[in-house]
Amino acid sequence: MSSRYFTSLxxxxxxxxxxxxxxxxxxxxxxxxxxxxLVEALxxxxxxxxxxxxxxxxxxxxxxxxDAGATEVLLFDGMDPSTEFVRKHEARQSIVKYRQGDLxxxxxxxxxxxxxxxxxxGVIYHSPDPYRQLLHxxxxxxxxxxLGSHIIPEVPGxxxxxxxxxxxxxxxxxxxxxxxNEVDAYPGMTKPFIDAPAMAYANMWWGISLSALxxxxxxxxFEIVSEYRYSTxxxxxxxxxxxxxxxxxxxxxxxxxxxxxxxxxxxVERPTWCEVPVID
Length: 280
Ligand SMILES: C[S@@+](CC[C@H](N)C(=O)[O-])C[C@H]1O[C@@H](n2cnc3c(N)ncnc32)[C@H](O)[C@@H]1O
Fold this sequence. Notes:
By secondary structure, the protein is of the alpha/beta class. The chain has two domains: 3-241, Rossmann fold, CATH 3.40.50.150; 250-280, no CATH class. Helices cover 37% and strands 20% of the residues. The protein is built from nine helices and nine strands. α1 (3-25) runs parallel beside α7 (170-180), α2 (31-42) packs across α3 (60-67) and α5 (106-112) packs parallel to α6. The longest helix is centred in the N-terminal third of the chain and has 23 residues, at 3-25. The radius of gyration is 22 Å and the shape is globular. The model has no long low-confidence stretch (mean pLDDT 94). Bound molecules: S-adenosylmethionine. The site of S-adenosylmethionine has 19 residues, from loops. S-adenosylmethionine is lined by residues 52-57, 77-79, 102-104, 121-123, 126-127, 148, 201.
């Protein structure tokens, strides 16, 4: 048996058995209804930021937050505003605002500033750097985060398992396509990675298990309040900010520490390993 064929068999068996177990144990609630109910509970009298609410839903979550009595609603997304969003916005004479930007970008995140409620569904697995995005969500969240994510079944015997999707074989892509019953929907996961210029975030980058997602949230400074599982592979998690993680060195920390160290030496005493530093 070739190793690719073996990989395909094991992947398919793992995915299929996980689905059977999950679906036997759970009575999954409908996602749309549950999300609307969550927005109605979270948004009244709160400022509300919807990160990544443009594609497919065309601002629905932001509009629900407006209807529920949020004090201010901003939709933040990397893509251009869709025609459907603009049409809905005009028809409702909405006060929802739109800002285009990138959740990876520290400057965009700084400019956004903190919000009472941050809603971020369907975004983090489109990133090569989901933990960094969670840290950014932590700095944006004053009271509540709703994080929606695809998840993979737990990998037997492995806690915190994740799959890096890009670069897998065709048989592995086909196994995920069979599991999702979707050949076309998930570039990077069920079909080849899109490597056209500036298109990387259209791809699925990471398959994240629920154990990994919970741990990532914890180490990004969130405490989980509740979880809503909609299927074997999709979950919404409501979380509150805990203490901001101070164990990640801020950008520039090592450079500044290096400069400070060099300043402790007189020119003549500098060790030979010293690169002459460029200090502004
Ligand atoms: C799969 S859609 C999710 C749509 C909706 N939130 C939902 O739950 O169905 C992903 C959305 O996130 C946006 N997005 C992906 N990566 C992003 C990033 N790094 N910064 C801002 N928006 C991003 C995409 O443009 C798209 O609108």
